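Researcher: Please translate sequence to C-alpha coordinates.
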Amino acid sequence: MDNQKNKVATWIFAGLVAGMVVGTVLHEFVGQEGIQSYTGIAKYGNIIFLKFIKLIIGPLVLSTLVLGVAGIGDAQSIGRMSVKTIGWFIFASLMSLTLGLIIVNIFQPGLDFQSQVGTMEAANLPKTDSFTLEHFIDQLVPENIFVALSSHKMVLQIVVFSILFGLATAAIGEKGEPIIRAMDSLAHAMLKLTNMIMWVAPLAVFSAISIVIAEKGLGVMVQYGKLILLFYAALLILWIILLSLGFFFIRNRVWSLISHIKEPILLAFATASSESAYPKLLNQLERFGVKEKITSFVLPLGYSFNLDGSMMYMTFGSLLIAQAYGIDLSISQQLTMLLVLMVTSKGIAAVPRASLVVIAATIAGFGIPEIGLAILLPIDQFLDMGRTATNVVGNAIATVAVSKMEGEEIKH
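Model: Translation complete:
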Protein backbone atom coordinates (compact mmCIF):
# COMPACT_ATOMS: atom_id res chain seq x y z
CA MET A 1 0.00 0.00 0.00
CA ASP A 2 2.83 2.40 0.87
CA ASN A 3 4.44 1.58 -2.49
CA GLN A 4 1.18 2.49 -4.25
CA LYS A 5 0.98 5.74 -2.23
CA ASN A 6 4.53 6.68 -3.25
CA LYS A 7 3.76 5.88 -6.89
CA VAL A 8 0.77 8.26 -6.89
CA ALA A 9 2.85 11.00 -5.22
CA THR A 10 5.58 10.50 -7.85
CA TRP A 11 3.06 10.73 -10.69
CA ILE A 12 1.53 13.89 -9.18
CA PHE A 13 4.96 15.52 -9.06
CA ALA A 14 5.65 14.37 -12.64
CA GLY A 15 2.32 15.93 -13.70
CA LEU A 16 3.35 19.19 -12.02
CA VAL A 17 6.71 19.36 -13.86
CA ALA A 18 5.23 18.26 -17.20
CA GLY A 19 2.47 20.87 -16.87
CA MET A 20 5.03 23.64 -16.31
CA VAL A 21 7.05 22.51 -19.35
CA VAL A 22 4.04 22.15 -21.68
CA GLY A 23 2.53 25.44 -20.46
CA THR A 24 5.79 27.32 -21.08
CA VAL A 25 6.19 25.84 -24.58
CA LEU A 26 2.59 26.74 -25.48
CA HIS A 27 2.94 30.29 -24.14
CA GLU A 28 6.19 30.91 -26.02
CA PHE A 29 5.52 29.20 -29.34
CA VAL A 30 1.75 28.99 -29.88
CA GLY A 31 -0.59 31.89 -30.67
CA GLN A 32 -3.53 32.98 -28.54
CA GLU A 33 -5.96 30.99 -30.65
CA GLY A 34 -3.95 27.79 -30.16
CA ILE A 35 -3.73 28.37 -26.40
CA GLN A 36 -7.50 28.85 -26.22
CA SER A 37 -8.05 25.60 -28.12
CA TYR A 38 -5.66 23.78 -25.78
CA THR A 39 -7.34 25.29 -22.67
CA GLY A 40 -10.78 24.25 -23.98
CA ILE A 41 -9.65 20.61 -24.04
CA ALA A 42 -7.16 20.45 -21.14
CA LYS A 43 -9.53 21.99 -18.57
CA TYR A 44 -11.54 18.75 -18.49
CA GLY A 45 -8.72 16.91 -16.71
CA ASN A 46 -9.07 19.22 -13.72
CA ILE A 47 -12.88 19.45 -13.98
CA ILE A 48 -13.31 15.65 -13.91
CA PHE A 49 -11.02 15.21 -10.91
CA LEU A 50 -12.64 18.01 -8.86
CA LYS A 51 -16.11 16.64 -9.67
CA PHE A 52 -15.01 13.24 -8.35
CA ILE A 53 -13.70 14.90 -5.17
CA LYS A 54 -16.90 16.90 -4.69
CA LEU A 55 -18.82 13.63 -5.17
CA ILE A 56 -17.21 11.98 -2.14
CA ILE A 57 -16.77 14.92 0.29
CA GLY A 58 -20.38 14.89 1.61
CA PRO A 59 -20.66 11.14 2.32
CA LEU A 60 -17.08 11.07 3.65
CA VAL A 61 -17.63 13.92 6.13
CA LEU A 62 -21.01 12.50 7.20
CA SER A 63 -19.81 8.92 7.78
CA THR A 64 -16.49 9.70 9.46
CA LEU A 65 -17.88 12.46 11.69
CA VAL A 66 -20.94 10.47 12.83
CA LEU A 67 -18.56 7.57 13.64
CA GLY A 68 -16.19 9.88 15.48
CA VAL A 69 -18.90 11.57 17.55
CA ALA A 70 -20.69 8.28 18.33
CA GLY A 71 -17.29 6.84 19.34
CA ILE A 72 -16.70 9.70 21.79
CA GLY A 73 -20.19 9.10 23.06
CA ASP A 74 -21.35 11.95 25.29
CA ALA A 75 -22.09 15.62 24.79
CA GLN A 76 -19.69 16.63 27.57
CA SER A 77 -16.69 15.04 25.78
CA ILE A 78 -17.78 16.54 22.46
CA GLY A 79 -18.06 19.95 24.12
CA ARG A 80 -14.59 19.64 25.63
CA MET A 81 -13.03 18.66 22.30
CA SER A 82 -14.94 21.43 20.50
CA VAL A 83 -13.56 24.05 22.88
CA LYS A 84 -10.00 22.80 22.31
CA THR A 85 -10.46 22.60 18.53
CA ILE A 86 -12.09 26.02 18.10
CA GLY A 87 -9.58 27.51 20.56
CA TRP A 88 -6.73 26.20 18.42
CA PHE A 89 -8.34 27.53 15.23
CA ILE A 90 -8.75 31.02 16.74
CA PHE A 91 -5.13 31.01 17.94
CA ALA A 92 -3.80 29.82 14.55
CA SER A 93 -5.98 32.29 12.62
CA LEU A 94 -4.90 35.28 14.72
CA MET A 95 -1.27 34.20 14.40
CA SER A 96 -1.54 33.91 10.59
CA LEU A 97 -3.39 37.21 10.19
CA THR A 98 -0.87 39.00 12.44
CA LEU A 99 2.08 37.55 10.51
CA GLY A 100 0.64 38.91 7.24
CA LEU A 101 0.09 42.31 8.86
CA ILE A 102 3.66 42.50 10.21
CA ILE A 103 5.34 41.46 6.95
CA VAL A 104 3.37 43.92 4.78
CA ASN A 105 4.13 46.74 7.24
CA ILE A 106 7.85 45.96 7.22
CA PHE A 107 8.38 45.46 3.45
CA GLN A 108 5.52 47.60 2.07
CA PRO A 109 5.12 45.73 -1.26
CA GLY A 110 2.11 47.86 -2.24
CA LEU A 111 4.34 50.88 -2.91
CA ASP A 112 5.63 49.14 -6.08
CA PHE A 113 2.10 49.23 -7.55
CA GLN A 114 1.22 52.90 -6.96
CA SER A 115 1.81 53.72 -10.63
CA GLN A 116 -0.64 50.99 -11.76
CA VAL A 117 -3.73 51.78 -9.72
CA GLY A 118 -4.99 54.53 -12.02
CA THR A 119 -5.12 52.25 -15.07
CA MET A 120 -7.01 49.32 -13.56
CA GLU A 121 -10.27 48.04 -14.98
CA ALA A 122 -13.06 46.39 -13.04
CA ALA A 123 -13.18 43.32 -15.30
CA ASN A 124 -13.13 39.86 -13.71
CA LEU A 125 -13.35 41.11 -10.14
CA PRO A 126 -14.96 38.49 -7.89
CA LYS A 127 -18.54 39.08 -6.83
CA THR A 128 -18.76 40.07 -3.17
CA ASP A 129 -21.41 40.16 -0.51
CA SER A 130 -20.94 41.88 2.80
CA PHE A 131 -20.85 39.61 5.84
CA THR A 132 -24.15 39.33 7.72
CA LEU A 133 -25.19 37.22 10.69
CA GLU A 134 -28.10 35.90 8.62
CA HIS A 135 -25.70 34.68 5.91
CA PHE A 136 -23.48 32.97 8.53
CA ILE A 137 -26.48 31.22 10.14
CA ASP A 138 -27.67 30.17 6.68
CA GLN A 139 -24.24 28.61 6.05
CA LEU A 140 -24.22 26.95 9.47
CA VAL A 141 -27.69 25.54 10.18
CA PRO A 142 -29.05 22.88 7.78
CA GLU A 143 -32.73 22.84 6.89
CA ASN A 144 -32.42 19.76 4.67
CA ILE A 145 -29.49 17.36 5.06
CA PHE A 146 -30.04 15.85 1.61
CA VAL A 147 -29.69 19.29 0.00
CA ALA A 148 -26.50 19.87 2.05
CA LEU A 149 -25.10 16.47 1.01
CA SER A 150 -25.79 17.28 -2.63
CA SER A 151 -23.54 20.37 -2.50
CA HIS A 152 -19.83 20.49 -1.62
CA LYS A 153 -20.42 24.13 -0.63
CA MET A 154 -22.40 23.14 2.46
CA VAL A 155 -19.76 21.24 4.43
CA LEU A 156 -20.50 23.29 7.58
CA GLN A 157 -24.13 22.18 7.49
CA ILE A 158 -23.08 18.54 7.10
CA VAL A 159 -20.72 18.98 10.09
CA VAL A 160 -23.52 20.39 12.29
CA PHE A 161 -25.95 17.61 11.31
CA SER A 162 -23.31 14.87 11.74
CA ILE A 163 -22.40 16.04 15.28
CA LEU A 164 -26.06 16.10 16.35
CA PHE A 165 -26.84 12.79 14.61
CA GLY A 166 -23.73 11.14 16.13
CA LEU A 167 -24.75 12.27 19.64
CA ALA A 168 -28.30 10.98 19.10
CA THR A 169 -27.00 7.64 17.77
CA ALA A 170 -24.72 7.20 20.78
CA ALA A 171 -27.59 8.10 23.15
CA ILE A 172 -29.91 5.30 21.93
CA GLY A 173 -27.34 2.61 22.77
CA GLU A 174 -27.89 -0.82 21.16
CA LYS A 175 -30.51 0.48 18.75
CA GLY A 176 -27.88 2.79 17.25
CA GLU A 177 -25.36 0.01 16.55
CA PRO A 178 -26.73 -0.85 13.05
CA ILE A 179 -26.37 2.85 12.10
CA ILE A 180 -22.79 2.91 13.42
CA ARG A 181 -21.94 -0.27 11.46
CA ALA A 182 -23.47 1.23 8.31
CA MET A 183 -21.52 4.46 8.76
CA ASP A 184 -18.32 2.46 9.34
CA SER A 185 -18.88 0.57 6.07
CA LEU A 186 -19.68 3.82 4.24
CA ALA A 187 -16.51 5.48 5.61
CA HIS A 188 -14.31 2.56 4.51
CA ALA A 189 -15.93 2.53 1.07
CA MET A 190 -15.39 6.29 0.69
CA LEU A 191 -11.72 6.03 1.70
CA LYS A 192 -11.24 3.17 -0.78
CA LEU A 193 -12.92 5.30 -3.45
CA THR A 194 -10.55 8.14 -2.51
CA ASN A 195 -7.54 5.91 -3.26
CA MET A 196 -9.06 4.98 -6.63
CA ILE A 197 -9.81 8.61 -7.54
CA MET A 198 -6.23 9.64 -6.67
CA TRP A 199 -5.04 7.97 -9.86
CA VAL A 200 -6.83 10.76 -11.78
CA ALA A 201 -4.93 13.39 -9.75
CA PRO A 202 -1.75 13.53 -11.91
CA LEU A 203 -3.91 14.39 -14.95
CA ALA A 204 -5.69 17.13 -12.96
CA VAL A 205 -2.37 18.56 -11.78
CA PHE A 206 -0.96 18.54 -15.31
CA SER A 207 -4.01 20.28 -16.82
CA ALA A 208 -4.34 22.90 -14.04
CA ILE A 209 -0.68 23.96 -14.16
CA SER A 210 -0.28 23.83 -17.95
CA ILE A 211 -3.38 26.02 -18.48
CA VAL A 212 -2.26 28.71 -16.00
CA ILE A 213 1.27 28.93 -17.44
CA ALA A 214 0.07 28.72 -21.07
CA GLU A 215 -2.26 31.69 -20.50
CA LYS A 216 -0.07 33.85 -18.26
CA GLY A 217 3.44 32.56 -18.92
CA LEU A 218 6.28 32.34 -16.46
CA GLY A 219 6.93 35.99 -17.36
CA VAL A 220 4.16 37.14 -14.99
CA MET A 221 6.17 35.54 -12.19
CA VAL A 222 9.19 37.63 -13.18
CA GLN A 223 7.15 40.83 -13.47
CA TYR A 224 5.63 40.26 -10.03
CA GLY A 225 8.77 38.55 -8.76
CA LYS A 226 9.29 40.64 -5.64
CA LEU A 227 5.68 40.25 -4.49
CA ILE A 228 5.65 36.48 -5.14
CA LEU A 229 8.99 35.99 -3.36
CA LEU A 230 7.83 38.06 -0.39
CA PHE A 231 4.57 36.11 -0.10
CA TYR A 232 6.30 32.74 -0.32
CA ALA A 233 8.91 33.90 2.23
CA ALA A 234 5.99 34.79 4.53
CA LEU A 235 4.49 31.33 3.92
CA LEU A 236 7.87 29.78 4.76
CA ILE A 237 7.89 31.64 8.09
CA LEU A 238 4.34 30.40 8.72
CA TRP A 239 5.42 26.81 7.94
CA ILE A 240 8.33 27.15 10.39
CA ILE A 241 5.94 28.37 13.10
CA LEU A 242 3.41 25.60 12.37
CA LEU A 243 6.09 22.88 12.30
CA SER A 244 7.57 24.26 15.54
CA LEU A 245 4.14 23.93 17.13
CA GLY A 246 3.94 20.39 15.75
CA PHE A 247 7.41 19.65 17.18
CA PHE A 248 6.17 20.84 20.59
CA PHE A 249 3.48 18.13 20.53
CA ILE A 250 5.13 15.19 18.73
CA ARG A 251 8.85 16.04 18.70
CA ASN A 252 10.83 14.58 15.75
CA ARG A 253 7.80 12.70 14.43
CA VAL A 254 6.70 15.99 12.84
CA TRP A 255 8.98 15.07 9.89
CA SER A 256 7.20 11.73 9.54
CA LEU A 257 3.91 13.66 9.55
CA ILE A 258 5.07 15.85 6.65
CA SER A 259 6.20 12.74 4.78
CA HIS A 260 2.77 11.18 5.26
CA ILE A 261 0.89 14.24 3.98
CA LYS A 262 3.18 15.12 1.04
CA GLU A 263 0.61 13.82 -1.46
CA PRO A 264 -2.28 16.04 -0.25
CA ILE A 265 0.17 18.98 0.00
CA LEU A 266 1.23 18.48 -3.63
CA LEU A 267 -2.39 18.10 -4.71
CA ALA A 268 -3.45 21.27 -2.92
CA PHE A 269 -0.49 23.17 -4.37
CA ALA A 270 -1.08 22.07 -7.96
CA THR A 271 -4.87 22.43 -8.06
CA ALA A 272 -5.14 25.40 -5.62
CA SER A 273 -8.14 23.58 -4.14
CA SER A 274 -8.56 22.58 -0.51
CA GLU A 275 -11.29 20.19 -1.63
CA SER A 276 -8.88 18.12 -3.71
CA ALA A 277 -6.66 17.42 -0.68
CA TYR A 278 -9.32 16.81 1.98
CA PRO A 279 -10.14 13.09 1.46
CA LYS A 280 -6.49 12.08 1.13
CA LEU A 281 -5.44 14.19 4.12
CA LEU A 282 -8.06 12.43 6.25
CA ASN A 283 -6.75 9.07 5.06
CA GLN A 284 -3.07 9.89 5.62
CA LEU A 285 -3.54 11.32 9.12
CA GLU A 286 -5.19 8.06 10.14
CA ARG A 287 -2.25 6.15 8.63
CA PHE A 288 0.08 8.38 10.61
CA GLY A 289 -1.64 7.14 13.75
CA VAL A 290 -4.17 9.82 14.72
CA LYS A 291 -7.36 8.16 15.95
CA GLU A 292 -10.36 8.27 13.64
CA LYS A 293 -12.54 9.99 16.26
CA ILE A 294 -10.06 12.92 16.27
CA THR A 295 -9.44 13.23 12.50
CA SER A 296 -13.14 12.90 11.66
CA PHE A 297 -14.00 15.66 14.14
CA VAL A 298 -11.18 18.19 13.65
CA LEU A 299 -10.65 18.06 9.87
CA PRO A 300 -14.20 18.87 8.68
CA LEU A 301 -14.22 21.86 11.06
CA GLY A 302 -10.71 22.84 9.93
CA TYR A 303 -11.85 22.74 6.31
CA SER A 304 -14.11 25.72 7.07
CA PHE A 305 -12.46 27.44 10.03
CA ASN A 306 -8.71 26.80 9.95
CA LEU A 307 -7.21 28.02 6.69
CA ASP A 308 -3.89 29.39 7.91
CA GLY A 309 -2.37 30.20 4.51
CA SER A 310 -5.55 31.94 3.33
CA MET A 311 -5.83 33.90 6.57
CA MET A 312 -2.32 35.30 6.21
CA TYR A 313 -3.03 36.23 2.59
CA MET A 314 -6.07 38.24 3.65
CA THR A 315 -4.18 40.80 5.76
CA PHE A 316 -1.28 40.64 3.28
CA GLY A 317 -3.53 41.42 0.30
CA SER A 318 -5.76 43.97 2.06
CA LEU A 319 -2.88 46.10 3.34
CA LEU A 320 -0.97 45.77 0.06
CA ILE A 321 -3.93 47.34 -1.79
CA ALA A 322 -4.15 50.10 0.84
CA GLN A 323 -0.44 50.86 0.32
CA ALA A 324 -0.87 50.95 -3.48
CA TYR A 325 -3.56 53.61 -3.08
CA GLY A 326 -1.47 55.55 -0.54
CA ILE A 327 -4.08 54.98 2.19
CA ASP A 328 -2.32 55.14 5.54
CA LEU A 329 -4.17 52.95 8.04
CA SER A 330 -3.39 53.47 11.72
CA ILE A 331 -2.42 50.51 13.90
CA SER A 332 -5.87 50.53 15.51
CA GLN A 333 -7.51 50.46 12.03
CA GLN A 334 -5.23 47.60 10.98
CA LEU A 335 -6.09 45.64 14.11
CA THR A 336 -9.79 46.30 13.51
CA MET A 337 -9.38 45.02 9.94
CA LEU A 338 -7.62 41.93 11.32
CA LEU A 339 -10.57 41.19 13.62
CA VAL A 340 -13.10 41.83 10.82
CA LEU A 341 -11.20 39.38 8.58
CA MET A 342 -11.16 36.91 11.46
CA VAL A 343 -14.97 36.90 11.52
CA THR A 344 -15.83 37.31 7.83
CA SER A 345 -13.50 34.54 6.68
CA LYS A 346 -15.29 31.78 8.59
CA GLY A 347 -17.40 29.33 6.67
CA ILE A 348 -16.59 30.43 3.12
CA ALA A 349 -13.96 27.80 2.26
CA ALA A 350 -15.96 26.27 -0.57
CA VAL A 351 -16.44 29.57 -2.45
CA PRO A 352 -14.19 29.83 -5.53
CA ARG A 353 -11.46 32.44 -4.96
CA ALA A 354 -12.67 32.62 -1.37
CA SER A 355 -9.78 34.74 -0.12
CA LEU A 356 -10.29 37.40 -2.81
CA VAL A 357 -14.00 37.56 -2.04
CA VAL A 358 -13.30 38.12 1.66
CA ILE A 359 -10.65 40.76 0.93
CA ALA A 360 -13.02 42.65 -1.39
CA ALA A 361 -15.86 42.52 1.14
CA THR A 362 -13.58 43.77 3.94
CA ILE A 363 -11.52 46.56 2.33
CA ALA A 364 -14.63 48.39 1.11
CA GLY A 365 -15.51 49.09 4.74
CA PHE A 366 -12.16 50.84 5.26
CA GLY A 367 -12.44 53.20 2.28
CA ILE A 368 -10.08 51.14 0.11
CA PRO A 369 -11.25 50.75 -3.55
CA GLU A 370 -12.25 47.15 -4.33
CA ILE A 371 -10.84 47.59 -7.83
CA GLY A 372 -7.40 47.38 -6.20
CA LEU A 373 -7.88 43.60 -6.29
CA ALA A 374 -6.81 43.89 -9.93
CA ILE A 375 -3.24 44.13 -8.61
CA LEU A 376 -3.48 40.56 -7.31
CA LEU A 377 -5.54 38.96 -10.08
CA PRO A 378 -2.70 38.25 -12.58
CA ILE A 379 -0.78 36.17 -10.03
CA ASP A 380 -3.57 35.07 -7.70
CA GLN A 381 -3.40 31.50 -9.02
CA PHE A 382 0.31 31.25 -8.13
CA LEU A 383 -0.30 32.74 -4.68
CA ASP A 384 -3.36 30.53 -4.20
CA MET A 385 -1.25 27.41 -4.78
CA GLY A 386 1.06 28.29 -1.90
CA ARG A 387 -1.65 29.34 0.55
CA THR A 388 -3.77 26.24 -0.18
CA ALA A 389 -0.81 23.91 0.47
CA THR A 390 -0.22 25.82 3.72
CA ASN A 391 -3.87 25.24 4.69
CA VAL A 392 -3.22 21.48 4.46
CA VAL A 393 -0.18 21.72 6.75
CA GLY A 394 -2.09 23.91 9.22
CA ASN A 395 -4.98 21.45 9.45
CA ALA A 396 -2.62 18.48 9.88
CA ILE A 397 -0.84 20.23 12.76
CA ALA A 398 -4.21 21.24 14.27
CA THR A 399 -5.38 17.61 14.22
CA VAL A 400 -2.19 16.38 15.88
CA ALA A 401 -2.37 19.18 18.49
CA VAL A 402 -5.99 18.42 19.44
CA SER A 403 -5.17 14.69 19.61
CA LYS A 404 -2.33 15.31 22.07
CA MET A 405 -4.39 17.81 24.10
CA GLU A 406 -7.05 15.10 24.41
CA GLY A 407 -4.36 12.79 25.83
CA GLU A 408 -4.56 10.37 22.88
CA GLU A 409 -1.54 8.29 21.92
CA ILE A 410 -0.57 8.67 18.25
CA LYS A 411 0.46 5.16 17.26
CA HIS A 412 2.48 4.73 14.09
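Researcher: Any highlights?
Model: The two ends are 15 Å apart (CA to CA).
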